[in-house]
Backbone:
């Protein structure tokens, strides 16, 4: 299975078998985590055989069952932290799929207090979210997607590489499956990625960018920076974007776990 095939086959899974991750699989997953941590300047840690983080009211509300392994996604606070978390976290999720594992992005429905017994954020670091990981009892379910015209902007004919990128981007897990992003073809070989608001939109944008790169092929285009708005923080469609702030109080379920693909 290659990355594109893994993207097509991966869906959120919340119920897992009580089965330890095989040693060889564990080593390969740890290697990918180490690479992503270094490349993304992040602190990512795999916690195994630890059921406490998902043994809470919120976890049961999110319909999680028997989650014993999870990947903590954290890093130094910065404007682009959440977007980098999304990009490299999804790269790990796709690698896990290629190794025969299942995953689910989780933003709220886990116990941060219990996670911090095993992962202590350093001064200036922020724990953004986690990835549940293990052997799922099912392959998960796909969800309806918005159309190309709703999610991208192209003047004239759509290049084949851009279409392939969009096909993969439309499969990206986003907060509550709202797909709050837009991809704009700004030149013959340049693309701008924009978050269009909502909870954890910048994490979702990082995930979308990773998916688009796999579908389109990085040899076919370059990311174009998002124009700076007056009075706003700098944002770009590279490894940067405004960090997600507090989640509105009326969102009672995890942004990703609620209806992730």
Residues:
């Amino acid at each position: 299975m290659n990355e594109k095939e893994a993207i097509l086959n991966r869906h959120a899974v919340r119920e897992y078998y009580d089965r330890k991750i095989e040693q060889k699989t564990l080593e390969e997953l740890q290697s990918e985590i180490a690479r992503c941590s270094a490349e993304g300047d992040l602190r990512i840690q795999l916690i195994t055989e630890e059921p406490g983080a998902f043994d809470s009211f919120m976890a049961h509300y999110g319909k999680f069952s028997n989650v014993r392994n999870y990947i903590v996604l954290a890093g130094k606070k910065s404007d682009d932290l959440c977007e980098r978390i999304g990009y490299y976290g999804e790269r790990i999720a796709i690698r896990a799929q290629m190794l025969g594992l299942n995953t689910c992005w989780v933003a709220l429905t886990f116990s941060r207090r219990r996670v911090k017994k095993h992962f202590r954020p350093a001064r200036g670091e922020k724990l953004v979210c986690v990835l549940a990981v293990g052997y799922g009892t099912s392959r998960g379910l796909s969800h309806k997607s918005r159309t190309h015209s709703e999610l991208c902007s192209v003047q004239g004919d759509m290049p084949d590489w851009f279409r392939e990128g969009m096909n993969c981007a439309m499969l990206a897990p986003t907060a509550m499956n709202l797909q709050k992003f837009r991809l704009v073809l700004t030149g013959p070989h340049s693309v701008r990625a924009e978050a269009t608001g909502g909870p954890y939109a910048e994490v979702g944008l990082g995930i979308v960018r990773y998916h688009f790169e796999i579908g389109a092929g990085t040899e076919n285009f370059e990311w174009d920076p998002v124009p700076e708005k007056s009075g706003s923080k700098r944002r770009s469609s590279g490894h940067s974007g405004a960090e997600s702030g507090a989640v509105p109080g009326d969102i009672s379920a995890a942004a990703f776990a609620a209806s992730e693909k």
About this structure: The two ends are 19 Å apart (CA to CA). Confidence is low (pLDDT under 50) at residues 230-255.
